[in-house]
Structure formats: C-alpha cells, structure tokens
Design goal:
single chain; mainly alpha; 12 helices
C-alpha cells in the first residue's frame, strides 16, 4: 500500500514538474528551488485543509532538499502525523522509528514514541474489520501486541508526557483485546477436550495480563480444566477465589476515550520545536 501511494505521488509530481522542466529548458532559464519556509507554510495550509497527500509532498521536499535546515527536524515529526492521517500506517511507523533514531533529544521525541505505538496498532487492523466493527480477538493480533509493547515503553520513558493519558486508555483496550484473544484459543481447546492446552492459555492471562476485563472468564476456564483433569483441590481453590469476589474481579471494560476509526482518524499534531 505504501509503495502504491508513493508511486502515485511520484507520478503526480512528475506530471506537474515535467512540463515546467520542458518550458525551462526551452527558455534556458534555471529551475529555482523554493525557499524552505515556502514548503513548510504550504504543508501547514494543506494539513489544515485535510489535504494530507499534498502536505506529505511538501514535507518530503524539506527533508530531501533541506536536511539540515531550520524546519528539517520539525518536518520529520510532522511527516509522522501526515502519513498517519493519510492512512499510511506503515509509513507513519517507519517515520517514527527514523525520528527516534536520528533525534533522540528532540522536544518531540515523546510524540514519536507515542505515534509509533498508535501506528503499530492501526496498521494491523484490516479495512473490513474497521468498517464492520468485527471482533478483532478472533484474528491475528501481533500488531496489537507490538503496539502494547511500544506504548508501554512510551509510558515508561515519558510518564508526564501530554500524550500519556491517550496512551493509558489505548493500553486498557489493548490489554483486554490480547487477553480475549488468548481465551478464544483456550475455549477452542476446551471444546476439543485439550484441557492442558486450554489451562496453559487461561493461566497465561492470569499471570501475564493482570487487571484485564477477561480475568473472571480465565478463572472459570481454569476451574473447568482442573475439574476435567481431576485436580479437585486446585479446583476448590479457584472456586473460593471466584466466590470471594462475587463472580467479578474487575470493572466492566472501559471504552477508550480516543477512538481509532477508518473514516474518522484522530491524532495530536506535534509541537512546533522552532518557536
């Protein structure tokens, strides 16, 4: 998808620039580069108009022609945002990785870590899953697991960041999604009387994904497995935990305050570091 979109942009740019080059050759006039600020201001106008496709072209021009200019690092951080808002999640993730590698002390470094995690999650969500709101717990969620790790790293590094509340809400959702995915597999094994495999999955949720909305479901699966395997004393222990908590160990699943949607993308704009 990234290659297709870049191919379209390159061909569009060629279609616009080629006639100008031919004209300049005929008139023997030199082709003049635009000043760096002209490109940056054009990118700002286009992003305000939600024309992220053209904004990316302007920001990429700064990165290519003025790699050490006043706006270069800011353009790199805004490319993360522009790619994401244009639906190019892989490009956004790569731009965030590049920014982290090249600018470890930049004021927007927390933004890059944050958006890297967000892009990891959205690039893994299939188009039809986003449109029809299908249950993602039944699918391969390797991207969600990567996003969980990256957002956890972001909160560890930047607990006071302005983006921390958004990341915390996203982690609640991802934690519950990952736990539910493990229990989908556990229930599959349970139906096929593969009790050891089911027990392993359910215990993984209890031990490695604490405080998720799936904790009680995991305990009930463990109880069933202990009963089927003849571990009656262990079954009683689990039964006591369930009874002591009235069948509820956590609050109902919280809805994230920051929803990611195919047609209603939202993301914070990076701070301007040169002002």
């Amino acid at each position: 998808m990234i290659q297709i979109k870049k191919y379209i942009r390159i061909n569009l740019a060629t279609a616009i620039i080629l006639p100008l080059l031919i004209t300049s050759c005929n008139s023997d006039a030199p082709v003049m580069e635009q000043p760096e600020k002209v490109y940056y201001d054009a990118a700002q106008r286009r992003m305000k108009a939600n024309n992220f496709f053209s904004a990316i072209e302007a920001l990429e021009a700064i990165e290519t022609m003025y790699p050490f200019g006043r706006f270069a690092e800011q353009a790199q951080s805004e490319l993360i945002y522009a790619y994401y808002m244009n639906g190019e999640d892989e490009a956004s993730h790569q731009a965030a990785e590049k920014f982290i590698r090249l600018n470890p002390r930049h004021p927007n470094i927390d933004y890059a870590y944050f958006m890297r995690g967000i892009a990891s999650y959205t690039r893994d969500k299939g188009m039809f899953a986003r449109i029809f709101k299908s249950d993602l717990s039944n699918r391969d969620i390797s991207g969600a697991k990567q996003a969980f790790g990256e957002l956890s790293e972001f909160l560890t590094r930047f607990p006071q960041s302005q983006y921390a509340p958004y990341a915390s809400q996203r982690l609640i959702y991802l934690r519950n999604l990952i736990a539910k995915n493990e229990l989908v597999a556990a229930e599959y094994y349970l139906k096929r009387k593969a009790y050891v495999a089911a027990l392993r999955r359910a215990k993984y949720v209890i031990e490695n994904i604490p405080n998720s909305s799936q904790t009680m479901t995991a305990l009930k699966i463990i109880k069933q497995c202990y009963n089927a395997l003849g571990y009656f004393e262990l079954e009683k222990d689990i039964d006591r935990v369930i009874s002591a908590n009235g069948g509820k160990l956590v609050k109902a699943e919280e809805k994230p305050i920051w929803r990611l949607d195919l047609f209603k993308r939202k993301a914070p704009v990076p701070r301007r570091s040169f002002e």
